[in-house]
User: What shape does this take?
Amino acid sequence: AATAGAAGVNLGEVVSWARRLLAGAGVAEAPLEAEVLLCHALGLGRAQLYARLRELLPPGALRRLLCLVGRRMSRQPLPYILGRREFYGLELVVTPAAMIPRQETELLVELALEWLASHPGPRLVVDVGTGCGAIALAVARHAQEEVRVVATEVSPPALALAWHNAHRLGLAGRVQMVLADLLSPLRGPIDLVVANLPYVPTADLASAPPELRWEPRVALDGGPDGLRLVARLLSQLPSRLAPGGAALLELAPQQVDKAMTLARRHLPTARLHLHHDLAGLPRALFLHLPIY
Assistant: This one.
């Protein structure tokens, strides 16, 4: 009945209908996401959609759109529905095998590339808990040729997804993927460690946005205080970081003080510095060891 009722409906009317449905389901950015889903259903760019708003919905397109809108109304994250996510200029394939890369994590890539540019020469960079490969692949794409990148991941499905993205982007030759728990199989010396580890406190997951239910819990749950894996990684760094080496860790703003205390305990000689995200919140902890 819905398909029959769509006869004579133009794209502008369909967008309005999808916006109302998404807004009613609690989707915060319903106007934008309705357009994105219609573009995906029709294989159009947004500029093309705007130019065709008076055109009628093509036969068969309503069924595809109903499926997409229904998935989003169930609060499945938009990147999982689209199957892709842009991160630091790379289009990554994303699936529920790994957490969706966030925009704030691009700060780690920027800081890593700045550090590498100021420390030229052959360098070993390790992305710990790579997920879909976002950080490792962005660093490999933009760093100088002599930089070697290793990506570790404890989840086999996530590591397979990272491999897929590496091959798609032509970066398989520049990134070594390792199935590992943090830095366990690596002995160093490592010049730069970059990590966006799970840091959501376990109790907070119950009240988290419904979209998080679709992401793998292992990629989100940071234990009682959110720092279980961060603390383990910090304990591994003294035996693996090279003299003069550095580490970049993404954190929740409310965890910064405790994380810095842990860092000072495990790396008492390291220089610590906090970097803020676009919202002005402390987001990345930078640790730099002295050369001697």
